[in-house]
Specification:
The chain is an alpha+beta fold and about 625 residues long. Helix content is about 30%, strand content about 30%.
């Protein structure tokens, strides 16, 4: 009897404690007015139950519930604290819900006044809320170990662990795994709040048929308001059979239970059986040198890398190189500076490259440059023709892709090359394709002109001249013509007739969610159809020009733009007798420091502004004048 009394007392006591804690929680929520922080939505209809919170536009004071495509409102249950019930008041009346109630009565796209109410029905807090629903896209739920993105978004070199769940459009679990690493990535895109990320799964997985791998990229596409420029080009590389071209899939990304935007899940450019399938010299280096990160470093004006105690027996491959710019080169462990064209290459793999390995691969690139820049295409040091150094087809394909879309950054960074071991090939290969958010007329000036060839030199800083020199040789021009007519000319038409419509149909609902989630970047009104039309117009004008040059063989004339310091800034070729659509560099009158750009002039002192038909190859020279600097 006494025992029963004790148990009854404990039960009453525990109930009292629970009631007290609930009231204390309600009191704290009421005092801090943190009702929205307590609000969550539990997503059913999947074996992996997930909870998401709202995103609040602080400027507009409107909250948004972004639902992934695999759930219907009837599968979503509300969770909140600090109130007895909530009321959604919309244009069609009011809906009252208690904890655990589903939101099937609510309409996506409609604006509601959300009220948190006490037991007596008194309305304690009001918040505007809109429900938006994705359609047709898989969903990625990512959780960081810290539960925060603050440090990850502040420091690109910082990484932490986490978890990932990936669901297909039906809510089936495609992958559920721990993450060994999450980190930020990107060049110019890193400056934006919506960032790209690299993730490494604990276990290799085949995501959407892209091949089993552990490293994956989440691309933000933040500088491309159409969201499709990278997708167009990656799929083009895959369709053309260009080795290592990244496959990709649009997804809705949720990080730490909050919608983070529409992303493009991509394969990483790396040496791997499912990516660039060549020998993994990095793995060999690490197997032979267990504490490789502690090895000493070497660096000279021409090269840098790691002092490895033990070398693999075969140094001929594989290598993955990236043509790079100075600021990025400084951050890398291994790389070299070429002798003839004065270009920087980082050795992406093996990233911990020994001096012998850097000497080997830089020797190959230097030999290629000597041959390419020779009038007869022959390396004067050893008699090798440039075609003995490079795989002609892969270089022609890479050039076509970059020229076709007028990719601004192609000749400076994110431009990859690889070398298998000698048992496979003794030549350098160009590719894989990567980074096209500034292509297809996404930038103005020479970048949006459709009736010229720029040879990957339209970027104003650190442009390559390699592809200009390659185009000086008839064998390369012939390879370009053949590759273009075999595949790319027809594929350009397919992009216009079919693929653009397919891409925008796939992402249409999700891009609306992304534009609202990242309104701080995109602004109030984005003319999405106008953004897409810009790509359509570019391709519609670009194809006839490329057909005329690479199919019909029309004669072209080249304008060489020479800076005041004697450096060649650009080669631009147009069909003989036509005018230039755009000019490289700044507009005349633009001030840079203590100098003002006057324009381009021929050797005879005649101003060249591109409005006169070009009838022959010419050289024009930069003119500036000094202006006094104010004290």
């Amino acid at each position: 009897m006494r025992r029963r009394g004790t148990l009854a007392f404990l039960a009453v006591f525990l109930m009292a404690v629970v009631v007290f804690m609930e009231k204390e929680e309600q009191y704290l929520i009421q005092r801090e007015d943190s009702y929205m922080e307590s609000l969550g939505f539990v997503l059913g209809s999947s074996s992996s139950e997930q909870t998401v919170a709202c995103f609040t536009d602080q400027a507009e004071q409107v909250s948004y519930l972004f639902l992934p495509s695999y759930v219907e409102p009837g599968d979503v249950k509300i969770s909140f604290a600090g109130a007895e019930s909530v009321v959604f008041a919309g244009e069609n009346g009011e809906t009252t819900l208690r904890n655990g109630g589903d939101i099937s009565a609510l309409r996506c796209g409609e604006s509601y006044d959300l009220y948190f109410c006490d037991r007596g029905g008194e309305r304690l807090h009001r918040q505007k809320i809109v429900i938006m629903h994705s359609s047709g896209l898989p969903t990625v739920f990512l959780e960081t170990e810290s539960g925060s993105m603050k440090q990850l978004d502040a420091d690109k070199s910082y990484a932490e662990k986490g978890r990932i769940v990936l669901l297909d459009v039906e809510g089936n679990v495609v992958c559920a795994d721990k993450l060994d690493r999450i980190s930020g990535r990107g060049n110019s895109t890193w400056a934006h709040p919506k960032k790209s990320y690299g993730i490494r799964l604990k276990n290799r997985a085949d995501l959407f048929g892209m091949g089993s791998a552990d490293n994956w990229i989440l691309l933000s596409n933040v500088e491309d308001r159409s969201y499709i420029r990278n997708k167009i080009t990656y799929d083009m590389g895959v369709a053309a059979g260009m080795a290592g071209s990244p496959q990709s899939q649009y997804i809705d990304l949720y990080i730490n239970h909050r919608y983070h935007g529409m992303y493009q899940l991509c394969e990483k450019v790396e040496i791997d059986p499912e990516r660039v399938p060549i020998a993994d010299l990095e793995a060999q280096n690490k197997n032979l040198n267990r504490d490789i990160e502690s090895c000493g470093r070497f660096e000279t004006e021409r090269k840098k890398g790691v002092v490895l105690p033990v070398e693999p027996p075969d140094l001929t491959g594989g290598y993955l190189l990236e043509r790079d710019v100075a600021e990025k080169y400084r951050e890398e462990i291994s790389g070299f500076y070429t002798e003839t064209l004065k270009e920087l290459y980082t050795v992406k793999a093996p990233s911990y490259a020994s001096e012998a390995q850097v000497d080997y691969i830089s020797g190959l690139v230097n030999g290629m440059e000597r041959a390419v820049t020779a009038g007869d295409g022959v390396d004067p040091q050893n008699g090798m023709h440039y075609s003995d150094y490079i795989d002609m087809r892969s270089f022609a394909q890479k050039y076509i892709v970059e020229e076709l879309c007028k990719n601004n950054g192609a000749g400076a960074t994110s431009s990859f090359f690889y070398k298998p071991d000698d048992t496979v090939s003794k030549k350098l290969f160009a590719g894989p394709v990567w980074d096209y958010d500034k292509a297809y007329a996404n930038l103005d000036g020479i970048n949006e002109s459709t009736a010229d060839l720029c040879y990957l030199m339209q970027r104003s800083t650190d442009p390559t001249t390699l592809f200009w020199h390659l185009n000086e040789h008839p064998e390369f021009r012939q390879a370009v013509s053949e590759c273009y007519n075999e595949f790319f000319s027809d594929y350009m038409q397919t992009i216009q007739d079919e693929l653009i419509d397919e891409y925008i149909s796939e992402i249409y609902a999700s891009k609306d969610m992304d534009l609202i989630r990242w309104k701080e970047i995109y602004g109030e009104a984005v003319d999405y159809e106008g953004e897409v039309q810009r790509i359509r117009d570019f391709l519609a004008a670009r194809k006839p020009f490329l057909d005329a040059v690479w199919t019909d063989g029309q004669e072209i004339c080249t304008v060489c733009f020479v800076s005041e310091n004697g450096r060649i800034d650009n080669y631009v070729s147009v069909i003989k007798g036509t005018r230039m659509q755009g000019m490289p560099g700044s507009e005349p009158g633009t001030k840079d420091g203590d100098r003002v750009f006057d324009g381009w002039y021929t050797q005879d002192g005649v101003c060249f502004d591109g409005t006169v038909p070009v009838m022959e190859d010419i050289m024009v020279y930069e003119r500036t004048h000094e202006v006094p600097v104010a004290d």
